[in-house]
Amino acid sequence: MKKRKTVAVISVLLVVALLLCIVPSIAKYIINKGQQSELVSQNFYFSSNFLKSDGVPTYEIYGNTVTFALRNYIDSLRISGTNINFTVTADGGTVDMSNGSLAKAVSSSKSITLTYNFGSDELQKEINVSVTGTGTFTQTLKATFIFIKYDGLRYEIRDRANRDYAELYIYTGNTPQNVTLLWDNAELVIDETNDYVFGKVQNQTSPEKSSVAIESIAADTTVKIVFFKKDIAQDYTCGITKFDGTINMPTN
Asked: Which terminus has fewer CB within 10 Å in the chain: N or C?
């Protein structure tokens, strides 16, 4: 009986010793395997100064061209270790490079120019751009560009029913401008904290009418002014419109 116990103890000790030798090797293999996977996944970098992989940003461009960069790096320490071949697609306008490549191991970038020729009656054009880069992995970068035609003063109102406010956007074009706003107090209340508006609001011929004069708005500037709605069911949306310096906010 004593001999059997001794054999059993020795067997257990042998198993434990064997496990102590094997487990570290397995753990080391798993760690090394994980590190190798991490290195592979982090060895592919494809980026842009405008386009994004985790969303679709929107940019307003005053004029008919925009140039964006494609890069094989994030910063000086993170550079792609594989060659990247890319293709560029746009649902409008023309690009000066529809495909190309970025060399591995050194910082590399390519500049792509998107151009749109406005029609005689067009004031703006929205174009969606997508660039797919393929190396160790495949990644797609996207952005939306809204081209706005330079042709004197323009404004638009962005709004929707059941929202508390409407947004007025003024586009000066390529020359400095003076602008006067008129609105009905019974329907709209201007945001007087705006730097362009603060301390300048004046009553007109009746308490229901107010105005503000905004002087010397710089060229190539977009001015955004918020109007709070008395009736949120109203929708004051107005597309881009040419004007002579005075904006009468719409009424319903």
From this structure: N
